[in-house]
Amino acid sequence: MRIPKANVVAKRHSWLLAIVACCSVVNAQSILQGQNSVYNSAATTTGSVAFFDASMFALSPPPTNRNLCAVLNFILNPANTIIPPTGAVVDARGLNSTNTSLNCTSSPWSGITSPPASTILLPAATITTSAIWILPSNTRLIGEGDGVPLSGAVGTTIQASSSSFSGPLLQFGSSSICPGTPAVCSGISVEDLTLDGDGGTSVIGIQNQYSQNNTFVDHVGLYQILGTGLLVESGADGSGPYTNIRFDTGGDEATTTTECVSLNNLTSTQGVRGLSCLSATNDAPAAVLLDSSNTSIEDVRIVGFYDGIRIGANANARSNVLAHIIGDTSQNPLHPTPVNAIHIENAAHTVTDLSIMGVSNSGLMGTYTIQDDVTGPHLSDTSIAIYAIGETVPIASGGINGYTRYTTSPNVANWSAGTSSPSGGCTSATRGALYSCAGTYSTCCVGGSGCTASTAAALWVCGSGASWLAVD
User: Residue 77 phi/psi, 5° resolution?
Assistant: First the structure.
């Protein structure tokens, strides 16, 4: 059946009118540079104030300083009235070596006194910087993966411009941009990227001294940093959690200043979870310095370093929890195990109420799973389920006689249980150990067979003669 020509012409005119109407609606609304086009409540298109494409500003900064950080600085600067004061997402994933330089000579927030809140999406590329990036409050920095160059996968890397770089690559807040006295920032986070120190001994990956609530780090690689990978200091109380962090010296020999994580003089944090610290040598004194209180450190693997986690070396450490700590060796035999997976210092600082659950070390000659300088034992057990230190114990004259302590290690005074009388495990090293007999009076016999209820004991102690003595 043939359609009359008049009808075809009419249909063409209707389509043309629809296209003209559509375009007139789009043009009737204001869509600013970099904005996405979205429908509003009136079913017309307008520019989104919540999302900006940074690649549309690649030619906006001065041509003599056209790099990724300068583009971001141009967008974030309130003087240019691009981002509303309420903040927005800045998508910089379209910035690359073809439309801008990836070599930053200044911070994206340099010279901005009141930057708006922002979520910045960084490209899958290596961005070099010769300047410290100081992140203001309510700033989220999100990359496209933390696998570069740790695994060879495509991701985002912020790299020091040279090994002579000094200070942090990323700094959370500062005394000048955080409000209040003392200065306190909040809402700063970094996710899914790698920080590369280029082998610099004075490089810090992330330093947080000012940002507290809603501040965290997740899936961040710390590569070739021979200074401190993550440094959280007094003033950042309540910050965290710091999760899924991989520290790797990249084959470079650690120095006496190399640290994976340092928690320094904090009253509390949201903790560290999912931490891997790899050093080519154990020349570095400690992978993790825990000199803070009310903090948990969980799911940690440490290769190299002299001490895995060192507690109370520089400040008081109270009410901390360590769980699932592994002092390990990698598949490369050149990578050494920690000498001490956990080292409890007996310096001029207080360590109390420490709970350790699930710690192991390789068990190689000369290594310890727990070195406790406070209560005495150096335990070389391959694994220890529980080790806990409580409060100090005063004696009658008012001095300090020791600590309360409990452990499941059979090589030091402990409290174990069974269903029959103890027959072994009492040595001079375990004097003071307790044993609970939870069987019947015939199996918990004190004097051999044929016991009665009056001659059985439920509690035993390892005495000075290295033999079990019935207590009750």
Answer: -70, 120
Domains of the chain: which residue ranges?
50-407, 415-470
Is the pLDDT at 44 greater than 90? The verdict is no
Q: Model confidence at 451, in pLDDT bands (50, 70, 90)? A: confident
Name, in order, each residue with C-beta under 8 angstroms of 3's C-beta and a sequence gap of 6 or more.
none
Mean pLDDT along residues 140-167: 86
Q: Assess contact for 344 and 354: CB atoms under 8 A.
A: yes
Which amino acid, 207? Q
* pLDDT for the residue numbered 450: 64
Other C-beta atoms within 10 Å of 94: how many? 14
pLDDT at 440: 87
- Helices of type H across 104-221: none
As given in the structure block, the two tokens for residue 284 are 């570095």
φ/ψ of 170, rounded to 5, equals: -125, 130
368: Cα separation from own chain's centroid: 25
What are the backbone angles phi and psi of residue 35, rounded to the nearest 5°?
Answer: -80, 150
Average pLDDT over residues 94-102: 92
Helical residues (DSSP H) of 123-280, grouped into ranges: none
Question: Beta-carbon neighbour count of residue 17 at 10 Å?
Answer: 10
Q: What is the C-alpha to C-alpha distance for residues 222 and 372, in angstroms, rounded to an integer?
A: 29
Residue with tokens 């899924």: 244
Select from 61, 53, 133 the least CA-distant residue to 93.
53
- Angle value at C-alpha 109, between 107 and 113, nearest 5 degrees: 140
Residues 208/239, Cβ–Cβ less than 8 Å: yes
Relative to beta strand 459-462, strand 468-470 is antiparallel
State the pairing for strand pair 351-360/383-394. antiparallel
DSSP 329: -
CA torsion sign for 167, 171, 173, 177 is positive
C-alpha span between 212 and 372 (Å, rounded): 32
Query: Burial letters for 251-260: b for 16+ Cβ neighbours within 10 Å, e otherwise?
Result: ebebeeebbb
Contact 236, 211 (CB under 8 A): yes
List the structure tokens of 412. 């030091």
Query: Are 354 and 311 spatial neighbours (Cβ–Cβ below 8 Å)?
Result: yes
Tell me which fold the domain 50-407 belongs to.
Answer: Pectate Lyase C-like (2.160.20)
